[in-house]
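Entry 12.
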Amino acid sequence: MEPLRPHDPPVIGPHTVLARLGSGGMGQVYLGRSPGGRQLAIKVVRDDFAQSAEALARFRREVETVRAVRSAYTANLVDASLETTPYWLATEYVPGPTLTEVTRARGPLPQETCFRLFAALAEALAQVHGHGITHRDLKPHNIILSPVGPKLIDFGIARGAEQTALTRTGVAPGTPGYTAPEVITRNEVTAAADVFALGATMACVATGRPPYGEGSLESVVYRVVHGAVDAEGVDSALAELIRACTAADPAVRPAPAEVIARCAVTSSLVDDPVYRSLADLGERAPDDVPAAVAAGLIPARPTGAAYTPTYVPQMPPGPPQQRRSRRGLVYAAAAVASVVVGGVAAYGVMKPGGSEDREASEGRKASEAVAQDVGRPTPGASGAGGGASGSGGGGGPKVPPAYVEATDGYRGSWQHKEGGQSFEGECSTPPTEGIDNLQISITDPQNPDGETPPGKVRIGFRLKYVDDKPKTPYYVSVAVKSPHWIDEKTGKPHPHQGNIGNLDLGYTTEPVNLFADDPQKWVYRTFPDDFGRTVRGGTEATRVPVTNDPGSWTVNFLHVKSPKEYASFACGGFLVE
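Predicted 3D structure (tokens):
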């Protein structure tokens, strides 16, 4: 539970907002209170996602799914708004820690507790499947240990048997390590895939370790497809059931009813003393505004000011020439005219009156090539690494992070526009932050400039202008992701990848402070020379020429606050033929 930030709304619909509960792939989740005093978890779709027809369809499906699945093991739907922005849904708030928090705090659970939890979760899946729904993302993060038993949350990618898949081509649903091999290789999602995720989850609970080990995403997925779940040190009966649930062949996995029978529990999970102690680990949620203020969850107001339950007024729209895009690099409202200048992808932003950015239209030399003005971010916008607002934003540690280490990967990818030039395309996932007047440049692999040797790509960034230099640093790292997972031994695409896209963050550069010197001076990095991959604090340089993996490469620009705390603020890419 986190304090509200200045840009957070005091109310959502008729519900008062009391705190932040966390963030997901599509938006922010708040703790709320209904007019009648009921505690709620309210999920609000981000503005940039609200503009995407696919994202909105996915959110509507989530609402329909949560409404359909009413169970003692799920957080039931209370309210929703799907007609006008902001889109949101409110479910009952479930007190208690997630299973991930529990394993981190307590380590592996005792065998008897594991069997009781195994049976309870299998019963939860049986009820969900009974409604014709597959969860598709069961994992410790999405299980809350409430005082009355475990609850399944986050049905964002759940799907009914009659529903059409919305998963992007080449990207499998779910989370690596908990996603069944048939989903990874064939995108084949059935109830048996949920059973696999259940077995992987219980392996984590019983061992205190990731079910398929640690490391890069491609290595984890490879072990899922070709290896076995980690059940070392687990009692034989429990280990046997875990291995049965995670069998490679979905046809031989037990159904939830069989899992329950094999657990052979004789007492309730909520009567288990270990479980009761775990459920007590959850934070106590405030019941009303005064309690939230006392807990420091609602920011202190100036003397005499009150926490008013109404939306923060929006700035009135100004004349067209004064309005600027507030979306990310790919979803900018302005049209983009693209040219190649000296082998560099140069994107000139079209002005409201139709004139092209002068630097692009005049075709300046490569070292000054302009990519695109990202546009002003939403005030106070932030991602995993905190917020930055224009040239006056920033924020970060005084000691620069030495590297960037992937935590959850980056599922988004840049896709080349068919028939377009090598740098024309769009990213599937918008940035989570924004920087005012950011410009980037990427050399064309098919036509490199004089400073970029064949097989390499030169990437640059700068601010077009600076109003006020911030007092705090803003560390930037560039992440380059290949179209396919690269086998580190051969430097070429992994031969056993299947049809799943590259879910890794990619190769990254050492973070640099954008405001250390002159933010308007171009900062350049060359791939692969200046890039490497960090795993468990150790960084290995990469020597993979882009020609090793033809296709659409993704370039992500990261705001880095610590080695494992970062957020994307711009995205681009290039095609290798």
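Annotation: The chain has three domains: 11-93+287-294, 99-279, 372-576. The mean pLDDT is 74.
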